TrEMBL record:
<protein>
    <recommendedName>
        <fullName>DNA repair and recombination protein RAD54-like</fullName>
    </recommendedName>
</protein>
<keyword id="KW-0498">Mitosis</keyword>
<dbReference type="InterPro" id="IPR027417">
    <property type="entry name" value="P-loop_NTPase"/>
</dbReference>
<feature type="domain" description="Helicase C-terminal">
    <location>
        <begin position="693"/>
        <end position="856"/>
    </location>
</feature>
<keyword id="KW-0132">Cell division</keyword>
<keyword id="KW-0378">Hydrolase</keyword>
<feature type="compositionally biased region" description="Polar residues">
    <location>
        <begin position="97"/>
        <end position="110"/>
    </location>
</feature>
<comment type="subunit">
    <text>Interacts (via N-terminus) with spn-A/Rad51.</text>
</comment>
<dbReference type="Pfam" id="PF00271">
    <property type="entry name" value="Helicase_C"/>
</dbReference>
<keyword id="KW-0131">Cell cycle</keyword>
<dbReference type="GO" id="GO:0005524">
    <property type="term" value="F:ATP binding"/>
</dbReference>
<dbReference type="InterPro" id="IPR001650">
    <property type="entry name" value="Helicase_C-like"/>
</dbReference>
<dbReference type="InterPro" id="IPR050496">
    <property type="entry name" value="SNF2_RAD54_helicase_repair"/>
</dbReference>
<dbReference type="InterPro" id="IPR049730">
    <property type="entry name" value="SNF2/RAD54-like_C"/>
</dbReference>
<dbReference type="GO" id="GO:0000724">
    <property type="term" value="P:double-strand break repair via homologous recombination"/>
</dbReference>
<dbReference type="Pfam" id="PF00176">
    <property type="entry name" value="SNF2-rel_dom"/>
</dbReference>
<dbReference type="InterPro" id="IPR014001">
    <property type="entry name" value="Helicase_ATP-bd"/>
</dbReference>
Length: 967
């Protein structure tokens, strides 16, 4: 049923109290200012970076190189982990008894010994001889450690003759000598004793600086320290010399370069890339050893093509996607085989975009173990919508059918683990790109039990949700999968959670982890994900902490020394170097040209009188003020949530609106003074500015001839109730997907909505339940009713509509209630992006931390402004989409910025598609009156009575032809 009267006519204009006079925004008096006069919410970045920021330096291709680090590099290039020598030298003791304080005396664990004993030194990986040279997977050890096998005794005399005896007075004039450079040695150590036969207990690294030494075990942990040595004694250390260090004694094995120490490779080992990326030369076939003929053969191998194998698909076709051939070392291990080209089925490869072709090659090299020695894992961290699924489909199909040695296919069984809302979608993607005749997928559900997978022969690919996997882990273990793909794999970032440990235990070495969420923000999480795909490449958890995490974090502390900063930077560079061998991330830029144009709007909605009244009341609450006096996580989030509910609809604070209202003390306090007309389920547009705007927009869209559909996203299911009530009131057909939607219903809802012939007009989506992975290209408009603290969550939601497969121009709206916490959250988002150039993880919002000053700012209502964010930009534009006076323009980073810049926020370029402060300057800034010439969006224009300000931006893209599978 269509209504003739627009909601804007139905709403009584008198119920709104305009925050500005005559449509011209007054510049507000800012309530909180920093000493420099800037808002705390938008202040200039300091030089000091958080650990997260340095981790943004650990970038994958396409991001800022480490050289962009802001730390100044001085000419003093000495790297050291020692503390200030001045302090040490104050404690110098008489020559005869050097003071050697042992910080910790830790013994080496059996597993460490195993590792140490199996270490080797490799100079040329091509010349490895299996059996002779063996190494801890993926590592070469750059220092010549363990020359003396552990546990071996030493003949007296042999080394003692060169012992440095502390206390022997050196030649005079030592004090005038230049302090020597820090030196590093590979040593073996044992407990100090007078025994003639030493039994060495472990390898270690000795750091020698001026008169002091530090001993670190192979995990980078400090196990001894000594000081007060003679300069000459330390200067004369050489291979075979011994030295007492605290309660231990060490014997020098060899010296280590400063570079090896700076990168940490003397602890973790150097991970050498395989020469796979080098041009591959067809190897000369090796003479075949005698073999009895066998009767069982792989189906695609005949006697004829065995001796003269041909690739499954023609590698000479101009559009053929040919996989790299095995590197020579790999061929050594398969010395009986002839190499044949592996070519991706043209049926699939014809659809791959260039970045997807690159991705398939990358994944292939990783899982085949071509890129690194003995590791078979990869992380594909492409931004959302780049087609990670298709890249995996191409990989799986190739490995199921082909083998570079023309023996049997590389994999026989493939396991795909996904969030529950995506299992069916994976099945659909396989069918979309391969067709049913090539491959069928076994999706585990009520009808298809995991344990029955082994009894069928039709499908080699099992798709299962994480939840179901936990229940069937034992059965799956027994099925023996050869390749495992974990979609939305950032959920495995905590190695302690059950899913991660169970998945890790199923004994499948080829592992691919997919995630659209950046990994670089938490170094421990990065470790957990890498450890999952390539166990051991970053060493043990303890060595990772000592070698990478601690120095990187230390280098970011405000009080860090130049040496610490240098060490942190080189360790971060090394970590980046290692991880880039198996982590690939591309940003949305690579796909933009395939997508239709996109218009984005940040819409500032005018608060209603009821909202202003309730908001003021909440700010005066006892609960909120005690939270300011003694901030603690729970109360703060509860206070913020209460304010956000007022922004969405004040009736959400009525008793019983949702579970939270029952739990929160603050909401109980607020409920007592709520205006009596606010009741659960009675969600009038006249009480909420945002709902009024949404109502007008939906009406305009529904009345139009364009037959467009819209997705409305919220972080709260109770807010989805509000919108659902609105849809019901105006008889708009709508679907809803939130946490309570059963798994099997989710894809059905998505399919129904995407179907061009369906009448469903609105799709109500919970950001948490449906934010990741879903394709909602049936809609061309998406409206975010509220924001998340984390820009990544909002980005994820927006990407549901503006993604491959979308053919219409996309409109993205974000609603904020003017002058409230909504605006503050938005400012935090764009500032965060601007500072770090990378987004934080999706669950970050649970760990939002605020200073008291920030809280005060968040708890301040600015009721006298049309747009606080624009005021803070101090923009002098005409607020009609025009630009500021020419004289006040500045040029920065190839982008035209307005003169209104609030200081330069950052020189770091955003690698993501979230708007940054800098970018916002170049958007259109629009204040009322909103004529169609200015707004250029009839949908928004219909709601203009209830809008105080708009930021808008049009991303025009050169649309490339859209390829679709020929099904
Ligand atoms: N080369 C292509 N040509 C046409 N459509 C494509 C292509 N690649 C992917 N698509 C389509 O683009 C959509 C997005 O792909 P997909 O779901 O794999 O993205 P994703 O990288 O997994 O994103 P997210 O991180 O959001 O899950 C899908 O509908 C997919 O079928
Ligand atoms: Mg996906």
């Amino acid at each position: 049923m269509r209504r003739s009267a627009a909601p804007s006519q139905l709403l009584k204009r008198s119920q709104f109290r305009p925050p500005f006079v005559g449509g011209v925004a007054k510049r507000p008096c800012l309530e909180v200012k920093t000493p420099s006069g800037q808002s705390p919410g938008l202040s200039k970045p300091t030089q000091v970076r958080s650990p997260k920021d340095i981790l943004s330096l650990i970038q994958t291709p396409g991001s800022a190189p480490l050289g962009n680090c802001e730390h100044p590099h001085t000419s003093d290039s000495t790297n050291t982990a020692l503390t200030d020598d001045d302090t040490l030298e104050k404690n110098i003791v008489p020559d005869d008894s050097p003071s050697q304080s042992t910080i910790s005396d830790q013994t080496v664990s059996p597993s460490d010994k195993l590792y140490l004993q199996s270490s080797y030194s490799v100079s040329n990986s091509n010349n490895l001889v299996p059996g002779r040279d063996f190494v801890r997977p993926g590592h070469t050890q750059s220092h010549a450690s363990a020359r003396r096998p552990l546990g071996q005794t030493v003949q007296p005399g042999a080394v003692w003759s060169r012992q440095v005896r502390p206390g022997v007075t050196p030649p005079t004039g030592e004090e005038n000598q230049e302090p020597p450079q820090t030196k590093y040695y590979s040593v073996v150590w044992c407990k100090r004793s007078n025994k003639k036969h030493k039994k060495w207990e472990g390898d270690a690294v000795l750091i020698v600086k001026t008169r002091s030494v530090v001993l670190k075990d192979t995990e980078g942990r400090e196990i001894g320290r000594g000081m007060g040595y003679k300069l000459a004694d330390l200067a004369s250390l050489q291979d075979g010399s011994t030295l007492p260090v605290g309660s231990k004694e060490v014997e020098i094995q060899s010296s280590i370069s400063a570079e090896s120490f700076a990168s940490g490779s003397c602890f973790i080992g150097e991970m050498e890339p395989s020469p796979a990326t080098q041009p591959l030369v067809r190897p000369r076939p090796k003479p075949k050893p005698f073999r009895l003929p066998t009767l069982s053969r792989p189906s695609h191998t005949t006697e004829n093509n065995r001796s003269n194998p041909t690739p499954l698909f023609d590698p000479a076709r101009p559009d053929a996607l040919v996989m790299p051939r095995p590197p020579s070392q790999h061929q050594w291990q398969n010395s009986n085989s002839v190499v044949v080209d592996v070519v991706v089925d043209p049926h699939v490869s014809g659809h791959l975009r260039p970045h997807q072709q690159e991705g398939v090659v990358f994944l292939y090299e990783c899982v085949m173990g071509y890129r690194t020695h003995d590791t078979n894992g990869a992380i594909l961290a492409d931004e959302m919508g780049l087609g990670k699924t298709l890249q995996c489909v191409a990989l799986v199909w190739t490995l199921l059918k082909q083998d570079p040695y023309h023996q049997r296919p590389v994999v026989r069984r493939v396991l795909v683990v996904t969030p529950s809302s995506l299992t069916v979608n994976w099945g659909k993607e396989f069918t979309k790109w391969l067709g049913r005749s090539r491959l069928q997928v076994y999706i585990v559900d009520q009808n298809n039990k995991a344990e029955n997978f082994g009894k069928q022969t039709i499908s080699p690919v099992m798709v299962i949700s994480y939840e179901m996997f936990i229940r069937c882990a034992q059965a799956i273990k027994e099925l023996k999968f050869d390749l495992m793909i974990c979609d939305e794999g950032h959920r495995l970032k905590n190695a302690n959670i059950k899913t991660a440990s169970l998945l890790g235990s199923i004994g499948c070495k080829r592992r691919v982890l997919l995630t659209g969420t950046p990994l670089q923000n938490d170094i421990q999480e990065l470790y957990a994900l890498v450890e999952f795909v390539n166990p051991g490449v970053l060493g043990s958890s303890a060595s990772f902490r000592h070698v990478y995490e601690d120095p990187i974090v230390a280098s970011q502390q405000p009080q860090s020394t130049e040496e610490e900063r240098q060490l942190g930077t080189s360790r971060a560079a090394q970590l980046n170097r290692i991880t880039s061998m198996f982590i690939l991330r591309r940003t949305q830029e690579v796909i933009n040209r395939y997508l239709p144009a996109k218009s984005e709007y940040v819409v500032f909605c005018q608060p209603t009188e009821t909202q202003l009244e309730v908001y003021h009341r909440v700010l005066g609450c006892r609960g909120l003020n005690s939270c300011l006096a003694a901030p603690n996580g729970t109360d703060t989030l509860s206070a913020l949530m209460t304010l956000r509910k007022v922004c969405n609809h004040p009736a959400l604070l009525a008793r019983g609106a949702d579970e939270e209202t029952v739990k929160s003390e603050l909401i109980k306090e607020v409920a007592a003074f709520l205006p009596s007309h606010l009741e659960v389920g009675k969600y009038e547009e006249t009480d909420s500015g945002k709902l009024a705007v949404l109502s007008c927009m939906l009406w305009a869209l529904h009345e139009s001839e364009t037959r467009e559909k819209i997705v409305v996203v919220s972080n709260y299911t109770s807010t989805l109730d509000v919108v659902a009530a609105l849809c019901k009131r105006y008889s708009y057909t709508h679907l809803r997907l939130d946490g309570s939607t059963p798994t099997h219903r989710r894809q059905q809802l998505v399919d129904r909505f995407n179907c061009a012939t369906s009448n469903d007009f609105v799709f109500l989506l919970s950001a948490r339940a449906g934010g990741v992975g879903l394709n909602l290209v049936g809609a061309s408009r998406i409206l975010l009713y509220d924001l998340d603290w984390n820009p990544a969550t909002d980005l994820q939601a927006m990407a549901r509509v503006w993604r491959d497969g979308q053919r219409k121009k996309v409109h993205i709206y974000r609603l904020l209630l003017t002058g409230t916490v909504d605006e503050k959250m938005y400012q935090r988002q764009i500032k965060k992006q601007g500072l770090s150039g990378t987004v934080v993880d999706a669950r970050e919002s649970q760990r939002v931390h605020f200073s008291v000053q920030e809280l005060k700012d968040l708890f301040t209502l600015h009721s006298d402004t049309a747009c606080l964010t624009h005021d803070l930009l101090q923009c002098e534009c005409d607020q009609q989409g025009g630009q500021a006076p020419a004289a006040s323009y500045t040029q920065q980073d190839d982008t035209t910025h307005r003169a209104c810049q609030l200081g330069s926020t950052s020189t770091t370029k955003s690698t993501s598609s979230t708007t940054t402060m800098d970018q916002l300057y170049s958007w259109h800034h629009l204040a009322p009156p909103f004529s169609s010439a200015v707004v250029k969006d009839w949908c928004l224009e219909a709601a203009s009575d209830f809008i105080t300000f708009i930021f808008s931006n049009e991303a025009r893209t050169e649309v490339a032809p859209i390829s679709s599978p020929s099904l």
